[in-house]
Design brief:
274 residues, alpha/beta, 5-stranded parallel sheet, 50% helix, 10% strand
Length: 274
Amino acid sequence: MSLSDYSRYGGAAEKLSAAVHSGRTSHAYIFEGDNNIDKMGFAKAFAKALLCEEKPGEGCDRCATCRKIDNDNYEDIYLVVPVWNESKTKQAVRDENVLEMQSNLKTRPTGGDRNIAIIEGGDTMSPTAQNRLLKTLEEPNPGTVIMILSENPEYLLPTINSRCINCRLIDFEAGPDNKMVSLAREIIDMVLEREFFFDIKKKLDGKLKNRRDGLAFLDGMETVLGEYIRDNSELFTKEKLIRAIDSVEKARSNILKNISYKYSIRDLILKLEE
């Protein structure tokens, strides 16, 4: 699949494609999403966008480079995946695999002009492995791109988060009808009906008990806003919807920077009321 095939995950695919075309790609990304999100497929699609000469910024899915990426045998892509521990109780990325990856990234690319690393389950890396990875994030060789796939970026060290561009992937087409999506619909209705900020804040304080709840609520907000976009809703202009989604992402970024989730979400509501 090419990068545009993942547009259902929000605006990340379009932004990454634009970055490739403008020559402004970063050396490090965190692709964050729930376990139902095909983060590895998205990472490989981005690798195609970076390496495909037939259709740069997208990937053609036909050339030798794209086929090699699909078959996990492109010479300059290094995959790191979690493995089971001895007691078969959990999976984690091994320290020695991170070290091997770092060593590989120091070599000269043979297939093109980039070395690419994809770390699946990045939040399972030990603190030791993450601290070692910092060296590569701080001083990458030219052309290096590191993608960290994560369900729980809060388990990544703040120094890792701060050196990567975070892309939150949400399957808007799935439209999960969970409690946070329902809460998001209720809050948006309250905003549209011009209810008092105090009442909206009271509703949120009663439902959101911790940082994880706050991030889940933001996922719900993006799901509902995505529905408005798909349905061409007359309740919001397209420009206002774009601003709203941007405000949700800024709230998420603030929470990931350890700013209070309550403050970040209250600030989001004030922006939606403008």
